[in-house]
Amino acid sequence: METALQKVQLAEDAWNSRDPERVCLAYTIDTEWRNRAEFVNGREEVKAFLTRKWEKELDYKLKKELWGFRENRMAVRFEYEWRDHSGQWYRSYGNELWEFDKNGLMRKRYASINDLEITADSRQLL
InterPro entries from the entry (predicted)? Predict the structure, then answer.
């Protein structure tokens, strides 16, 4: 339990840095992702994906919560808030399934995400 909670917190902290170089180091060289309807393969594609993501999703702030774990797999619930270039704010909700290799790097990440338009004054993740 302690290790699982630590992994979730480390992931939250890394993603909140909005630094693709830092974030991608938590994944195997040949990591496999599904993010919404996009499939990403390999650490270099992860880096490119995150760069595009944070160019679009401005002022990104994320909160993750452990849902469950067993052996080398975890389920995580998350929400994050961001605004687009027009100033419209969103809260995105989702679930992730994670699978780790023997060295503790994430080799698979499957994310299902839904977006909700919100007003700036209804933000919760400041």
Answer: DUF1348 (IPR009783), NTF2-like_dom_sf (IPR032710)
